[in-house]
Amino acid sequence: MVVTPTPPNPPILNDPTLTSTWSHRAWVASGCIITVLISLAKAITGAAKSHMWLEPIVAGLLGYILADLASGVHHWFIDNYGSASTPLFGTQIDAFQDPHKRPWRVTRIQFANIIHTLARGVTLTVLPIDLACSCNDPTIHGFVAVFSGCIIFSLKFHALAHTPKSQLPLLVAALQDAGLLV
């Protein structure tokens, strides 16, 4: 029997701030399923039609690297500057600094709750461009799909960094060990 140590300030089991709502799930669905998958499908079909595979793959790799850089710089900035009363970014700063006070809490936030804000941002930014743009360049769509997907999941990846290694799925632990996830 594995005994999980109790965090110093155990969470209240019915804490509504940790629970995903239907609104959270809807934003995740629109961000992941609609926005990212539309770009990914356009990248794959465009690559198949043009027999151009290397460029979309390289663009996807670039999307991964730039998403990692952008989310890292954003996290560093939010962690080090401002407070809850900072205009425009105050609630985001407060939420980002919470794991430093209570690292156990971020590991208990349900999936859609932790990523819905980024999914909403991606949906509101990328979906209109995807729908309005007649561009069928698989390279652009490859970049957009991977970049958007990595941005959406960046907070979940960060939450997994606060999870004890013994509680991580083997794939996540392996990706962390390889330096591909935080």
From TrEMBL:
User: What organism does the record attribute this protein to?
Assistant: Carpinus fangiana
The GO biological-process annotations, alphabetized, read as: fatty acid metabolic process
Q: Does the keyword Transmembrane helix apply?
A: yes
Compartments in which it is found = Membrane
Look up the domain of life of the source. Eukaryota
Q: Name one GO cellular component term.
A: membrane
Where is this chain primarily localised? Answer: membrane
Per its record, how is this protein called by name? Answer: Lipid desaturase domain-containing protein
Among Pfam families, the record links this protein to: Lipid_desat (PF10520)
For this UniProt entry, which segments traverse the membrane? 26-45, 57-78, 140-161
Annotated ranges, domain Lipid desaturase: 64-182
UniProt membrane topology term: Multi-pass membrane protein
